[in-house]
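Sequence only, no structure available. Ideas?
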Amino acid sequence: MLDEARQCYDKLAALTPRDSITDYFCLLNKGLILREEDRKKEAIISLTETADYAVRENMGASYLCSAYNYLADTYESTDIDSALYFLHKSIEIAGTPLYMQRESLKKLSNLYRRKNDKGKAARYAGMYLSLSDSLFKEDEINRIKDTQLMYEIEKTYNRIDRLNTEKQEKENQLRLQRKILITISVSLLCVITLLVMLYRQKKKLHQAYQSLFQHSNEMLRSEQANAERRKMLEERVSCLEKELSEHNAAEQHKAQAQEEPAEQEKTARCHSADKLTDAQKENILAGIERIMTNTQHVYDCDFSIERLADLTGCNSRYISQVINETYHRNFRSLVNEYRIKEAQKRLLDVERYGNYTIQAIAQSVGYKSHANFILLFKKQVGIPPSLFQKMAKEDNGTDTL
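Reply:
I predicted one. Tokens follow.
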């Protein structure tokens, strides 16, 4: 224990910075260690320095009283008078705590009893008992005060617990709100990302539609140019055939042959042969293209292969055969192709058809079903007719047919 006390003293003495209380206990502990080492003279010097330091630093009655009591304990075994001297000084200090005064009175009573001074021993013993009673009452009062204090402390703790509970609930609520906010933020970020992706996809789709629109216009222009050139060539061929017919007319033996219409001869050839010759096929094809290109019959909703056969003067079986062999598709597909191309032209003609609805355009080219027209238009052109019309209006004045 002495070694441990010495180690504690060394640690206390090594503390920096130090205050008056630290210096006081350094001197006090040094004196007590010296006393335990049976070095009483040195212990008395250190304890005296402790008392002087407490007086010099105005540390208070309890510090000075402690120093005097330890000096009295040190002198007790060798010099009773010195012990009595310091005990009397300890009880004379103003403001000394009552419990310290009580201990000093008890020691005085014992020392005077050892000196056989029964009067003083009894006197200090009475003072000790009186002070003990007073302390007992004070302790009782303090106990009541402590009880009240404990009650107040308990109330305070309960309030603190309640506040902590409320704080915890608020923190939980804040954490929940934070999670909700994070979830909303993540969801919003996902929505924004999706919107950006949709915007980019929409932009790419718009560019693709624009490309299809331009390509479709170019094809229509090219077809119109080809149709015009073909018409010019047909007119030239017709003129040459007419000149040749007039030249051969003089050599023909029958005058009525000159008056028979070419259509009747062509019709006879169409219906007389079981197997079509190349010339017959060319005649039928020319008739089909003439009706499909130069008339409005194809845009009649009741237009049929039988109607086409009547208009060309050939039976429907031969018409179907020529269409399949030449265009590699059936009659209905060919009609849809012509109708959709005409719908494109009308949608591009903003000045004449700009106020037409899609349904009106569909009806004008021979479709009873609005939905069927939209489906066929998108399949052939690649763009819905409504978007095609919008692009045509935007392009009006710079790229119109």
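The first helix runs from residue 2 to 13.
Hope that gets you unstuck.
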